[in-house]
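chain below, 578 aa
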Amino acid sequence: MRETGLSGQVVVVRADGSAPRVLGSGFDPSLGDPNPWSPDGKRLAWGGCGGLCVFDFASSRRTRISLGSDAVGLAWSPDGRRLAAVDVNHRLVIAEAAGRTFRVLSTAAQFPAWSPNGKQVGFLSGTKLELMPAAGGRAHVVARNADSGPQWARDGRRLLYAEFIRRPFRSDVRVVNVVTHTNTRIADTDGGKARWSPDGSAIGYTRRPVPFGIGEDVWVAAASGGVHQLTDEFPTGLGYTDFDWASGSVPAVPPTTVTTVTLTSTAELKLDDLAYQIVRAGTPDSVVYETELTCDADAETVSERFNVWTPSVAGTVTTGTPCQDFDADSGAASSNLDAWVSQSDLNGNDTLAVARPGTTEAPVIASWTSGEEAADIGWRSSIGPLVGSGSLILFETWTSDNTRQLWRIVDGPVPHAVLIPLPPDATGLVDADGSRIVVRTDAGFAVLNADGTVLSRVTSPGTTRIGGDLVGVAAGTALRVYTADGGTLRYQLPLAHASGVPRLLTIGADYAVYSSGVELHLLQLGSGADHIVDLPGQAGPLQALLTTAGLFVAYYHGYDPQRPGRLMFVPAANLPND
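prediction:
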């Protein structure tokens, strides 16, 4: 959604952010429905165009359904032929997706929801939860004191909703059976969110661990009764603001047995300002991590700072990142260079700066700024984030005609940038390690040498990470591991997902590390043994990095002051070897 005043442009892009396409003007499609796409995924609906607009991607045709006023909420029927929409005057209408006719069901409605069989529409009317036949007829009140729109269970018999409690930020999760007319209290959410599991057997919900907290913990309740806390407690108010169930929309490999392991670290940092990033540094036994820095006594100016930690010398070397009003969004380091990208002015221009390591706020010895001419890279409209470490520090740029280019920083008396040719189908820089670069392509990914030579191509979309001579691709609940040189499939392993959708963090010669919810999993590639790493007091979020020296882990700690953080190092010799 691209805003232009009160309304905006509805824009679709590819998953990698390329090929933006303007469909029309209107409101954000997700305001009224978390999924404004039709059930077959071929059409998109939105309001703000004097009614409803529907774009058909197969025919590239946009249909406008005039309602006399803008639609601000919508829901597709299960068969994709009709839309239930609420306009700015709270009229609930049923419209044909083809744009021919519509009928008014109610004049006081919000949050429409179709029954799974498409015969009824549930909605919120004031504080009443009502049902009405989609073909028209009499509305039936099924619950009172409602504080949310309804959610249907897959069986079409039960509705999930929140009931208002007359205390600040308090509400109950309740389920009403529209056949037996029974109403069951499930849990107190403290104003959090609730969602059915895909099979309707359980309800996930969030609740604040402390009054007026800024985040919530995630809980699960069986629809038949009984609740348990899914994530660790957040006494400081840190936590999740949203969650979702794994949908099962991607094929899953058989589950694996998971055990818990306690790793012996040889070094640990306790930080009050750890931000969400760790990346490779210039040597295998060091890492670049990000902190938030308060620049003045009144704490009015806060910016990111990138630091290099080398556990073997028990020291932290602060990079040259200056204290500034603008955020630094990526950093990298070699044995001779520290580099970071930050926003440099109110116009949104980006500056990539390079300094010598070893001192705090060291003088900048080279820099490139978007919107300015440079001798080596010329004029560029945008400078992308840094990727890589050691002798291979990379960044992307875009020209005024949106041409993507990849550059490598070369050290010297004055560091300079050298262009790396990209394959014609490359759509973005993903990762780099040693002398190898991973770029996203239309079909999957390609591995390049430092001079741009293509070493391998793999048609396997997913979250991709490289470590040494291995490339890992996580999609759904499966991990596929390929050789960087040649693209041969070496391993195909299941990923645990009981606590959340798996997210691949890092890969090395013998291990892969991924997260599931707030769990950190260490997966042995050879044996397939999967271990949950025991991190005492862990409260997420997680980052991890495997190097030839060992495993670095960054995580928030639930019993520290606000903005807590831990950074620990486990030598390779202390990792499990089943």
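Residues 1-7, 29-33, 233-240, 247-255 have pLDDT under 50 and may be disordered. DSSP finds no helices and 53 strands in the chain.
thats it, cya
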